[in-house]
Every structure is written in C-alpha cells, then in structure tokens.
Specification:
Blueprint lengths: L9 E4 L16 E2 L2 E2 H9 L6 E4 L14 E2 L9 H15 L5 E6 L9 H12 L3 E6 L2 E10 L3 H9 L6 H5 L4 E6 L13 H15 L1
Parallel strand pairs: 1-4, 1-6, 4-5, 7-9
Antiparallel strand pairs: 2-3, 6-8, 7-8
Helix pairs in contact: 2-4
Length: 209
C-alpha cells in the first residue's frame, strides 16, 4: 500500500436532501448555471486518484457525472459517517491498494485546490490516524482524510453503538487538523438555504473577476 498523496482517492457525499430549499438533491442546485456538484468535482478531481459519489436512491440521477455511485451500507440513513463507511468499504473491495480516502461535502462549491495535500501533510506532521479540515476556527468534520483499515471499527460504531456524530468517532483516534483562511472566501462555505445559494452566486462572481 502507498501513502503517497497522489494516490489518495476522494468521495463526495452527494446525497444531502435540500429540505431548506424545498427538497431534492442539494448538490444538484445550480450556481453560475451549473450544479454545485460540478463545481465540487472540478475542484477535487485534479487532486484525487479517482473520485466516487456517495448517494442513496436511484444512481441514474448522477449518470451525467460519469462517476461510480456508492450507496450507504448501513440502513436508516444514519448520516455522513455512513457515507464515509460506504466509501471505505467500496475502496477495500475495488481498490485494495488504497490506504486513505478524502471525503468532501457535495454542497461546498469553493473547496480548496490543495485540500488533499494539506490534509495529508497535517496527518504526517502530527503522526495522526485521521485528519479534518477547519476554517475561521471552525472544524468541518465531514471534510477529512480517513484510513481504510478503520472501516470495521467505524461499522461497529454505527451499527452496534448507534453513533452518529463524526466528531465523537474521530475523538477516539489521533486527529490532525488542517486550517484554511476564510478570506477572500471561506473554502468550506456550504449552500444549505436559498439565501446561501444567492450568496454563493455572489461569491462565485467575485472570484471570477
């Protein structure tokens, strides 16, 4: 197995329901005339050794993106930890050479273009087992670097302990944090509401100028 940053694939947690936007898949809402998921993939793909999507339901709705769609392997839609687990298990089956996976939220259109490198470097510097991103003093536990070999531990936590919060699980391990500035744009800005979509449009226009 290799720990080279260039060999780390990514999973986009793309199944978030846009309840505060009237329903549907949140990553399919548009910014600048393109789905948010387009922006996410555009920023992540050059950094990753392959990219998969985590989403439940009919995978055909993501067919246009041309990426494998991996459904949760734990019933009951227990949240993003289940998506991370699904990705780790998929990698173990399909890409046994992979040791690490980076996860990112499917509603973050401004992800940093050095996300994988910085998470990898933070983990190495702290000799940690996991790494997560932060900005402006706020941790973003959904955006992190995960060790594939921890998949059985994660499954037990989800199924036997009914654990749902990511930070409760990561607290069990040596955890590194990679921090980014929030200027000119918070790279982990996520679009949860209609107002957030308007703000994302404004930010995107600013970055394009």
């Amino acid at each position: 197995m290799t720990t080279d940053r260039a060999a780390i694939p990514c999973v986009v947690l793309a199944g978030g329901l846009a309840r505060r936007m009237g329903g549907g898949d949140k990553p399919m809402r548009e910014i600048g005339g393109r789905p948010i998921l387009d922006h996410v993939i555009e920023r992540l793909e050059p950094q990753c050794a392959g990219l998969v999507l985590n989403a439940n339901g009919d995978p055909e709705r993501f067919a246009r993106f041309g990426r494998p769609v991996v459904a949760d392997t734990v019933a009951g839609y227990p949240g993003p930890l289940a998506g991370i687990l699904a990705a780790l298990e998929w990698m173990a089956r399909n890409r046994p050479d992979v040791e690490w996976v980076v996860s990112a939220a499917g509603d973050c259109p401004f992800l940093p273009r050095d996300l994988v490198t910085r998470l990898h470097e933070a983990r190495l510097a702290d000799e940690a087992e996991l790494a997560v991103a932060s900005s402006g003093g706020q941790t973003h536990p959904v955006i992190g670097l995960w060790k594939v070999s921890l998949r059985d531990d994660l499954r037990r936590a989800l199924v036997e302990e009914d654990l749902r919060k990511i930070d409760r699980w990561t607290a069990r391990y040596r955890l590194a944090t990679a921090a980014w500035p929030t200027e000119p744009v918070d790279p982990f800005f996520n679009a949860n509401t209609v107002d957030d979509l308007y703000e994302a449009e404004r930010l995107a226009a600013t970055m394009a100028n």
